[in-house]
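Researcher: Please translate sequence to structure tokens.
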Amino acid sequence: MKTIFTEIIEGRIPCNLVYENDSVIAFLDINPASRGHTLLVPKEPVERIDQLSRDAAAELGAAIPKVCRAVMKATGAIAYNLIQNNGREAGMTVPHVHIHIIPRYPESSHSFSWNHGSLEQTEAVELAKSIKDSIVD
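Model: Translation complete:
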């Protein structure tokens, strides 16, 4: 699967690089929601986070706080959002796992809210058991 992120990872498309190691790359988003909006991308080319290998997931997880701290320090932001979509129906536009680190400022107006639903306790018990039973190591 070749995406624009593959092209960036392979050095065929330039980016404003902020971090890179053998497993991940982080660069400024070209269509930022705010100043410092950064994309953190595993080099393993999969579409959804559930498809990542254990090693790639661990490396991505280890890079998140490191890059977030750097974004906060460099931008002076007061907070940030982490956004990670999985699949087109979830709002993903580039089919390669990536995490948006979106700094928030006092004047920030973008929103990531949704309408909250409800869950009956009997359904919650059954659903939690089903999810728990589906977890494999």
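Researcher: Any highlights?
Model: The chain has one domain: 4-134.
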